[in-house]
Amino acid sequence: MSKTIIISNRLPLQLQIDNNTIKATPSVGGLATGMKSVHRDSNGVWIGWTGLTEEETPEELVDDVAKAAQDAQCVPVSLTEEDIDGFYYGFSNRTIWPLFHYFMEYTEFEKESYQTYVEVNKKYAEVVLENIEEGDTVWVHDYQLMLLPELIKKERPDVQIGFFLHIPFPSYEVFRTLPWREEILKGLLGSDLIGFHTYDYQRHFLSSVSRILRHEVSFNEITLKDRIVTVNSYPMGIDYDKFADAAAKHDAAKNQSELQRRLDLHIDSTPDAKMILSIDRLDYSKGIANRIRAYEYFLEKYPEFKEKVRLVMLAVPSRSNVPQYQLLKKEVDELVGRINGKFASVSWTPIWYFYRSMPFENLIDLYTTCEVALLTPIRDGMNLVAKEYVATRTDKTGVLILSEMAGAAQEMSEALIINPNNFEEIADALKQAMEMPEAEQIKRNKFLQKRLKRYNVEKWADDFMHSLHDTTHKSDIVKAIRMRQDQEDEMFDAYKKSEKRILFLDYDGTLRGFVNNPEDASPDDELIELIRSIHSQENTEVVIISGRDRHTLGTWWQDVPITLIAEHGVWKRPVGGEWAVTENLKNDWMETVRPILEKYVDRTAGTFIEEKNYSLAWHYRNADPDLGEKRASELSTVLKELSANNELGVLDGNKVLEIKDSTIHKGKAVTKHIFGKDYTFKFAIGDDWTDEYMFQDLPDEAFTIKVGLQKTAAKYYVDDTDRVRDLLKKFAAS
Ligand SMILES: O=P(O)(O)OC[C@H]1O[C@H](O[C@H]2O[C@H](CO)[C@@H](O)[C@H](O)[C@H]2O)[C@H](O)[C@@H](O)[C@@H]1O
Ligand SMILES: O=c1ccn([C@@H]2O[C@H](COP(=O)(O)OP(=O)(O)O)[C@@H](O)[C@H]2O)c(=O)[nH]1
């Protein structure tokens, strides 16, 4: 039976050694808590790190570690102290975490820790590959494992791989600063589906892919040479019923509340003071220090709330080997001390501060007892605490104040949404929360609960898995039209048997890959030899048919006696002959069009005009991809309006717009060329829109091939210019 393999840095259980025996405790953090129910309900395994390094695990306990993991349907990845230093405390949490949360000043770019990150991703890949069986689906989680999809795909192209990023994906301007940006993007693109919490993270990722790797991105699909990668947003939900049920039980047994007991013990004798809850891992991205300062500002701005409110703050220890986290701990300790010292009275402590993690029951106690939750991250992928707080409010009272910088804010607009850097706004939101009528609290929470209950973690995981399985459908379409071996054999068979054969070959993007400067794309020696050798076969004609100008084509192929067709069919150089115009064309329109193109060159950096005898081309390959596409579509509209009455046509090529006589195109050129001749084998290959005319106009029996995975009228497609070269070699050897 096929299974789902979940992979994350940490397993949902963390192992410790206590008295020479293995002890397991649940992992904290949104990923582990959220995925736990998905793991429980699926027939799957979870691969990750146990929390124990190889050095910490004595020889005699190695089997016990494996057993403890196995009992929880987990498979451990064995890591050394050095691995954890470079991979977890290093690249993951000193480079990626701060960078992706826009803390540029905390970001370290260390080559050694990146190398360890690569090595550790390989260790994860090894364990995954050992555990994959046919039909399994792989779901990789989070920023610690961004190279893993590619490592798995390389070995197991048959396996479907999903990746979910739990933290924000930063804007291109921030991401581009990473020295290993290409490697990270390529690693992620080993996936079939990549998921983010919000649309903003998704669009930032797509923008980096198109700018850095220059891949074609269309809406939410990235076209690679042989696959399509789908990208989408899936806001992670929580196990709603688990929290709501636990809260209901807790409410029914009021005396269970530790907080209440604390109040009853008169540790603090202002039991009526409303409680403001704050829960996070102690992480600078969570805005804890700012939150305390904003609370101080609130008490100063609205002194009437002194002794009427209390901030209950749970900070869970996290990544304490990273210096920034140690500094933050110090800062928070000092702030809490200073503010309590400044405002406390004999009967009132303004902040109750806990620095530890709490078991589930105590969390429920905190959630249900506090009238307000104040969550003010500076950046946060999602923030599940916000959702858990709302889910536990069984009578629907309670006010959530949430930072607009948390992914959760996008779905929780009924909360009081604040900017975490605006103390004025936070202070006012706290006042509003304190004074909010119960009816309004209920109204807001009703909407929030309904949504959280519906899109719970199970629905979220289902949604992701369905989309992942749908990607098979897309790759099936790709497989259906990609030239199969038997189709290729059939074509070469027909070629060999034929007594009169013709091959129409497009040049750029087909015989040669694209380069930034078109003049640098001259044919290499191997290509020249191949073309010469095919052409020299008996009864075989090779025609290079290109949009290029005749001088360039003529120079590159001057010593090879093949037919050349330039400028989409305007010029022809027959075998052994001279260039001649095939049609009587006008070019007086150029005077009107050139200034328009020049205007677009001036406004769009990286673009330029190519002048041919009978056409003008505006190239935008080197422009910013988004701007290039936008300007191209704008220019195309302008040119089409202008050309309507002039028998001019606008050709949309590969990053080029070409304006020329509309009666000229490659389809017409090939039709004229084969007219009256009895070729028994016809072949055409090309990569862009201008080649579509050939594919459409050649008779049905022709073998037509598109280079690259795009919509086409050709019968087949091949991946790239390397595959074209393979085909040429086979023609030459036939
Ligand atoms: O494993 P740690 O280094 O101790 O960190 C705990 C987890 O923190 C991060 O959680 C993120 O995932 C949550 C659920 O999607 C999301 O709500 C939150 O905003 C994120 O910060 C981290 O992404 C996980 O990998 C860690 O395990
Ligand atoms: O003592 C604690 C405090 C919090 N949590 C859980 O940790 C998760 C925190 O997730 P969130 O998305 O808010 O932030 P993250 O820590 O993942 O960045 C939530 O599910 C909490 O219930 C926990 O297990 N023990």
Automatic annotation (TrEMBL):
Pathway: Glycan biosynthesis; trehalose biosynthesis. It holds the Pfam family Trehalose_PPase. It is an enzyme of class 2 (transferase). The keyword Glycosyltransferase applies. Keywords: Glycosyltransferase, Transferase. It comes from the Bacteria. GO terms for molecular function: alpha,alpha-trehalose-phosphate synthase (UDP-forming) activity; trehalose-phosphatase activity. The keyword Transferase applies. Its EC number is 2.4.1.15. It catalyses: D-glucose 6-phosphate + UDP-alpha-D-glucose = alpha,alpha-trehalose 6-phosphate + UDP + H(+). GO terms for biological process: trehalose biosynthetic process. Homotetramer. In the C-terminal section; belongs to the trehalose phosphatase family. This is Alpha,alpha-trehalose-phosphate synthase. It comes from Leeuwenhoekiella blandensis (strain CECT 7118 / CCUG 51940 / KCTC 22103 / MED217).
